[in-house]
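User: Quick sanity check before I run a bigger batch. Here is a single chain. Can you write out its predicted 3D structure?
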Amino acid sequence: MNNDLAETSELLTHLKMQLVKEPSAEVYVAPPFTSLYHAFQTLKDTPVKVAAQNVHFEKKGAYTGEISAQMLQSVGVTTVIIGHSERRAQFNETSEILAKKVSAAIEAGMMVIFCFGEELKERKEGAHFDVVKSQLTEGIFHLKAEDWDKVILAYEPVWAIGTGETASPEQAQEVHAFVRKTIAEKYNDEIAGNVSILYGGSVKPDNAREIFGKEDVDGGLIGGASLNAIDFLAIVNAFE
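Assistant: Done. Predicted structure follows.
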């Protein structure tokens, strides 16, 4: 919940001015609902795609304050983040709710960025693999194999979000490799190898290249650093 329309416009203008025409990475921005249409209009002639931060699982009805996949599509948005740790923790979004959101978005033809990750207590207890497997199983493993071309995964260890703490590149790689193995066991090696798995958790310009250099880390879900165009572009350019 950052940046009003004017602030979003300023940030996107800086991105447009400084982003290379063909960046080495696929780039998304995910502003608040109130700025989505403006972002789409501003960026439609650039390689940058626009994602929403959330979606409801129904198409319409008595759900005051909610936004459906169809509403997002009507303003040019075709990608949505589902399962962010803050939605899970602060808004009590259960795996059952998230599974319904995933289904609604996929059925509407949207791309889904599905987030998962353990809390500090779970990491210290050595339960992080179990937590990650459970969140994947309950939240997204109901999809058919053919749906996975519309899925991007984002591992975000909760203890490393906004804390200044960062999972080491080795810790990130370990979990990402585990995720691929888990997907291969549920589906097949092809899906496991093709799905993009992002790392989210205090990624900054000075650590991005090392994190992204790991074999199973395909990119980042960037938080605070994305609010500064220079920092965000430096992270994008870490792929070059």
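The chain is about 40% helix and 10% strand.

User: Great, the batch can go ahead then.
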